[in-house]
Design goal:
binds 3,4-dihydroxybenzoic acid, alpha/beta
Length: 308
């Protein structure tokens, strides 16, 4: 059974990998991913300078997922450029994720990763957890400026980590920009920004930063993630690859993303909860589903969502 796939021309030996976010900020954590069933090594979104992140508590499990406002704790991009050399040659692609706090930051960091050992560069235009800095991708003129500045900096594929959109007008606008720039892939979706979970016992939010507002993750967001994967697939299929992310914790979830049109899925909340065994487990479950349905590869199913 072939779960192998490719994203922006880069081969992945399996359909399931980690997402930028949990357990991927240090070399030790990235080594765990390298030694797991994850089909790629996706690194934590990095900034120009190292960051401690937001104050605790900044992550809380919920009944059907989690809410988080980590605030980009990371070691600074130079550390990840170095880690890429150490992680290359392990039989799986290494993916950088860059989160600039300014246009200049994006240019500096994408340029540095173009000269590094990474295979793919994910440009994170969707972090919802920085007070006063709304996700770039909700502002299409700022998005155009970033794309103008970063898409021609080298030959490694550049992709965009996008926030959820809720109207086709916005999918159209994003896809217009993507089609007019050299974008190799999109990653749909980041967490749903600025959700609020309240503990009725303490009468307080469950996380502290931003008065309790944070990114919603896990099962809650899967239908929104599937909708965004589908909307981008309908507009970009065959031209731009798609990583699906948002609530993947079983083979059945991964199969739904495959039907919607994802070239591969990334796993965040289930990895946080379960640890690195989740990748192999989800991939095996997906394989069984494909076998049961008589499909011999992911390619035979990709995007083939039926009509009701
Ligand atoms: C963080 C959250 C995000 O959703 C993201 O894309 C990048 C960083 C964070 O809070 O660390």
């Amino acid at each position: 059974m072939a779960l192998n796939t490719s994203v922006a021309g880069v081969a992945l030996g399996g359909y399931v990998c980690n997402a930028s976010g949990p357990r991927d900020a240090t070399l030790e954590e990235l080594e765990v991913i390298a030694n797991s069933g994850s089909s790629a090594i996706v690194m934590k979104s990095c900034t120009r300078e190292p960051r401690e992140g937001n104050e605790e508590p900044r992550y809380s499990r919920l009944a059907f997922g989690a809410i988080q406002s980590m605030g980009l704790p990371n070691l600074g991009f130079k550390a990840y450029v170095g880690f890429a050399s150490q992680l290359a040659g392990r039989g799986k692609p290494v993916v950088a994720s860059v989160a600039g706090l300014s246009l200049e930051d994006f240019v500096l960091m994408v340029g540095a990763f173009q000269d590094s050992a990474v295979d793919l560069i994910e440009v994170n235009l969707s972090c919802p957890n920085l007070a006063g800095k709304p996700p770039v991708a909700y502002d299409f003129s700022r998005t155009a400026e970033v794309l103008d500045a970063v898409c021609g900096l080298g030959s490694k594929p550049v992709g965009l980590k996008l926030p959820p959109y809720y109207d086709f007008v916005h999918h159209d606008a994003a896809c217009g920009l993507i089609a007019s720039h050299r974008v190799g892939f999109v990653t749909c979706i980041n967490s749903i920004g600025n959700a609020l979970a309240i503990n009725p016992e303490t009468e307080a939010p469950v996380i502290r930063p931003k008065g309790g507002f944070g990114g919603l993750c896990g099962d809650y967001i899967k239908p929104v993630a599937l909708a965004n994967v589908r909307a981008f697939f309908e507009r970009l299929a065959g031209k731009v690859s798609i990583f699906g992310v948002g609530g993947v914790k079983s083979g059945s979830d991964a199969f739904e993303f495959l039907l919607a049109g994802a070239d591969a899925v990334q796993v965040a909340t289930a990895f946080e909860n379960e640890g690195p065994a989740c990748f192999g487990r989800i991939a095996s479950e997906l394989e069984l589903i494909l076998q049961r349905k008589g499909y011999s590869s992911v390619d035979g199913v990709k995007g083939r969502l039926k009509r009701v």
